[in-house]
Amino acid sequence: MARLFSAYVIVDWSAASKPTTGADSVWIGVLKRDVRFRMAFESFNPPTRAEAEKRLALILDDLKKRSERALVGFDFSLGFPRGFAEALKLSGEHPWRATWDQIDKMAKDKADNTNNRFGVASEINRRLTGGPFPFWGCPPRDTLTTLQPKKQRPHGPGDLPEFRHAELLAKGAASIWKLYYNGSVGGQTIMGIPAVRRLKVARGDGARAWPFETGFKAITEADLAGVDVVLAEVYPSMIKAPALPGEVKDLTQVRTTAEHFARLDEAGKLGALFAPPKGTAADVVLDAEREEGWILGLA
Asked: Counting beta carbons within 10 angstroms of the beta carbon of residue 173, is it exposed (0 to 12), middle (13 to 18) or buried (19 or more)?
């Protein structure tokens, strides 16, 4: 059985406010065929998101020249909890796309990593509730009337959900509303979605975001005709694998996640992972396809 992909690119993003390398910075892991057609891994640790975006574009352009299709996994949420776009009064028939466009409009990310992620969250809070909710978590110096360092209250019946459906299933996954502190993903999402959007726009119909544009279903070679890149959300913490000597945790995670998907693809089992887990309710499937997204490999 032929592989669906020729290359596996895993991106560990960062919301850092200054250039940084090593632990807790951006890591890009690439598993692809070398000149001898053997699968070989290489990694990149650019100090800024701007450099990371350029590197990703170069990687994908090179793979396209070689007619090699890539699976690109990002370790942050590609969608917000159901009802987010409607609550913000965003227009358009595709809530996920309206959200991507809105976050892209609001987020400012300079070449030196200076960014306004706390300002974006504060403004979204203002529009949603007029107070410091649902986003929370920031250094004391970034405290605003509509953004506080600590969570202000639990989510109630009239609020947007605290978790997406996928996060409820993924043990230990943080809520997108948590912006700061260990395990937070909100900051990376605010700074990451615009980068994914730009990569996708630059590649037109050759890039598809899963499950929004592919459908939340098993994928076959026929489904990927004309597709160069599939963009997906991944959660490297789900894959337990030992580190190589001297590897920082982030590098281990991008390497082992790429190897994991490559092994499944080689065995003809990767396509099935793009479908919802068995028994998933129809409304959950619809929410994932329209707005929330899903974590690839979550069962």
From this structure: buried
